[in-house]
Design brief:
Among the domains are: 130 residues, Alpha Horseshoe (Serine Threonine Protein Phosphatase 5, Tetratricopeptide repeat), CATH 1.25.40.10; 84 residues, Serine Threonine Protein Phosphatase 5, Tetratricopeptide repeat. Helix content is 68%, strand content 0%.
Length: 345
């Protein structure tokens, strides 16, 4: 019996040892894993809640609604700024009319008035953008010539001296040509023709400046190309007599006497009283009688540098405006498609 008891105890001890081994090797790792899983899950759920409960300064909030103002009131505010000659705030006020009421008749007027205010404030790029927007949206409106004119003069007044890039000059010439082509009988076209002549003269001055540079460096062929461009492309400008004279100098330096004589003959026929013809005559007397001599010809004089055109610019006055925008609205509603900018006020 003792043996059986001892055996039972021994067996019981072995069983206890087996259960302990099973708990240690199987159940404990599972318990640890499940506890780790529970902790991970709790942390995953707690982090978003902690973020929500934290500082909410970084959380985007909906923007406040802007109170809509009637277009008549916005337009009246813009006119007030216009009377005070506050050009930039005035342009911003007219832009606000278009932003809040893009499909009203006030928006169409506001675009053109915004272009005018930007022009008066010397914000030429903004004036050009506003004028282009009006032309795009309302190409058949009676005030389209005025929009083209504002665009043209905004480009024209950005012309710089001939020593700098002439991209704006070319753009101004293109805009002036388009204005003259589309609306030839308007007052704007008449002013544009004068500005177009000055613009062409300025571009011819740029060619002359480059040609003189080549001539001083002894690069006669390159200089001749520039001078011929002036003679052929800018025939009505004031630089043609000098261009012909420089051609005579360059041809004589190359020994091409016949070409020099032809240029001198053209100069004498078209500009007989010019100072440049007197210089050409003296040069031909000294060098022109020797055929194919190829002697370098000294330049007789240096022309003064050409500056940007200094034509007195007329101030583009805004149209007369009524004190009560509501009265203008009633008139514009009756003849909205027929009336022009000057009928709006």
């Amino acid at each position: 019996m003792a043996k059986i008891s001892n055996g039972a105890r021994a067996g019981s001890g072995s069983l206890d040892e087996c259960v302990s081994s099973y708990d240690r090797l199987v159940l404990m790792p599972l318990f640890r894993f499940s506890r780790t899983l529970r902790l991970s899950t709790a942390l995953a759920l707690a982090l978003p809640l902690a973020a929500c409960a934290g500082d909410d300064t970084d959380v985007p909030r909906p923007r406040g609604e802007i109170q809509e103002v009637p277009p008549e009131q916005l337009y009246a505010n813009a006119l007030t700024q216009l009377d005070k000659a506050n050009w930039i705030p005035c342009a911003a006020a007219f832009d606000e009319v278009e932003r809040q009421h893009p499909y009203s008749i006030w928006a169409r007027r506001a675009i053109l008035m915004s272009a005018f205010c930007h022009y008066q404030g010397n914000k030429y790029n903004e004036a050009i953008l506003a004028a282009d927007r009006f032309i795009t949206l309302h190409p058949g409106n009676k005030d389209a010539p005025y929009a083209y004119y504002l665009k043209s003069v905004s480009l024209y007044e950005q012309i710089v001296d001939v020593g700098r890039d002439q991209r704006r000059t070319e753009q101004a010439m293109s805009a002036l040509r388009e204005l003259i082509k589309r609306f030839p009988q308007t007052d704007y076209a008449r002013d544009a023709r004068l500005k177009l002549d000055l613009t062409r003269d300025h571009l011819a001055g740029k060619e002359m400046a480059i040609g003189r540079y080549y001539l001083k460096r002894g690069e006669m062929v390159a200089g001749i190309s520039r001078f011929r461009t002036v003679v052929e492309k800018y025939q009505t400008t004031s630089h043609v007599p000098e261009a012909l004279h420089r051609l005579v100098e360059a041809y004589l330096s190359l020994g091409v006497v016949k070409e020099a004589q032809a240029s001198a003959a053209v100069l004498g026929h078209n500009y007989p009283g010019s100072e440049w013809y007197e210089d050409t005559y003296a040069v031909m007397q000294e060098y022109g009688s020797i055929p194919d001599a190829g002697k370098p010809v000294a330049q007789t004089r240096s022309a003064s540098p050409v500056a940007a055109p200094q034509e007195p610019m007329p101030v583009i006055a805004p149209p007369e405006m009524a004190s009560d925008p509501g009265t203008a609205a009633e008139t514009a509603d009756k003849k909205d498609d027929e009336g022009g900018l000057f009928d709006w006020f």
